[in-house]
Amino acid sequence: MKLIYSKKYTQYTRLELMEKVSAQMSKKRFTHVLGVEETAIKLAQMNNGDVEKASIAALVHDYAKERADEEMIAFIHSHHLDEELIIFGNNIWHGIIGAELIKLELGIHDEEILNAVRKHTTGDMVMSLLDKIIYVADYIEPNRRFPLVEQARKIAFENLNEAVKFETKHTLEYLIKQEALIYPKTITTYNTWVATVNRHLNK
Amino acid sequence: MKLIYSKKYTQYTRLELMEKVSAQMSKKRFTHVLGVEETAIKLAQMNNGDVEKASIAALVHDYAKERADEEMIAFIHSHHLDEELIIFGNNIWHGIIGAELIKLELGIHDEEILNAVRKHTTGDMVMSLLDKIIYVADYIEPNRRFPLVEQARKIAFENLNEAVKFETKHTLEYLIKQEALIYPKTITTYNTWVATVNRHLNK
After folding, report:
1. How many CB pairs under 8 A join A and B?
2. Triad A130, A134, A140: Cα angle to 5°
3. For residue A179, which residues of chain B lie inside 8 Å, CB to CB?
4. Do B181 and A172 lie within an 8 Å CB cutoff?
């Protein structure tokens, strides 16, 4: 890929940022990250989004996914985040705390990029185009394998809002089947994007 | 049935209370109410619960289910309840507001009975024996017809906590399949009773 960064959002070139990210995770996860980037760029192009921001947000979205639980819990305490976060584990922490670590350690301060990282696991009531791109790209990138992924890909390349709805509904069904904890914001996202009564909000 | 009320919780006899409740709803719903009462009494007997309270709470649990939306919304405003309630409709209102109407109109002030009415649709993180009895009886009473009801009945007559778990999980799955709004407390109930990580809480 020949994407040249403008230096507006990060001091690093794309290759340098890839190296920084790669140093934080397993090869398997880094392959996933590159898949998310490829998909996010495609979705940005198709939806008149910012391709550079899509690339950066995709590259950093899982930056904190492999941090030790102890470090993340210490961060929750030292930064006075809501202690209710603790029971939800790194599936939830890595987006919310990840955005802070990206700021501190990578010097990325663009709030649109940071919000896309914050929201990439749970979605939110209000989602920017970049939020939707990262949320959906994370779900459908080429390395993903699960029964509904082909259907999710088809929807994503037709209608990004419908893809947010599809992903939110089926992620929630999956969590319940697994009897996994559900983070309250996931229900806010569901009530906005899936439930029919108030789907007109925020669109 | 020959259940004689003690007059500790209501001034009415059981028959008088049945008449009061019956006047508030269709014949079909009243048949459901009597089914919930029969089941609640059985569950109370099996779990060393208070049979009289189980009967009263069951009889009044749907007292407000057929009130006009306008009256319920006016109640939310006049009693300064959270306006976020409004979008959730009478499925959620009739328990929360129903408890207040039961106090005002039927003179029932026992907080254990009122809480069982408040929690009968959504459950809660903390549930008393009576809360569980009414929540489960409402789901499995003899007039209920849905694919999992026989399994739910079997579980309920073996282990009330497992029945709370089963009902919460499958109600949530049903709501998502219907793309219905989910009241946030339903997720609190799910995270406590279904999700495995913190299931040790409140039991």
Report:
1. 54
2. 140
3. 169, 194-196
4. no
Contact B195 A182 (CB under 8 A): yes
pLDDT at B200: 42
- Quick one: pLDDT at residue A196? 75
Residue type, position B70, single letter? E
Contacts of B44 by beta carbon, 8 Å cutoff, 6+ apart? B50, B51, B53, B54, B129, B130, B133
Which residue of A182, A193, A196 to mutate against B (max B Cβ within 10 Å)? Answer: A182
What CATH number has the domain spanning A14-145?
Answer: 1.10.3210.10
| Cα–Cα distance for residue pair B67/B52, rounded to 1 Å | 26
Q: Which residue from B100, B96, B109, B62 is spatially nearest to B185, judged by alpha carbons?
A: B96
Other C-beta atoms closer than 10 Å to the C-beta of A29 total 16
A11 min Cα distance to partner chain B (Å):
41
Q: Tokens in use for B62?
A: 């749907």
Contact state of A179 with B173 under an 8 Å Cβ cutoff: no
Q: What local confidence, expressed as pLDDT, does residue B196 receive?
A: 75
Q: Which of B157, B92, B84, B80 is nearest to B119 (CA)?
A: B92
Residues of chain B with C-beta less than 8 angstroms from the C-beta of A187: 182, 184, 187
Any idea where the domains of chain A sit in the sequence? Answer: 14-145
Give mean pLDDT, residues B173-181: 96
| A197 with B187: Cβ contact below 8 A | no
Question: What's chain A's length in residues?
Answer: 203
A194 and B179: CB-CB below 8 Å?
yes
Q: Which two tokens stand for residue B171?
A: 């109600």
Q: Which of B179, B184, B196 sits opposite A196 (nearest CB)?
A: B179
ipTM of the complex: 0.89
Fold classification of B14-147 (topology level) = Hypothetical protein af1432 (1.10.3210)
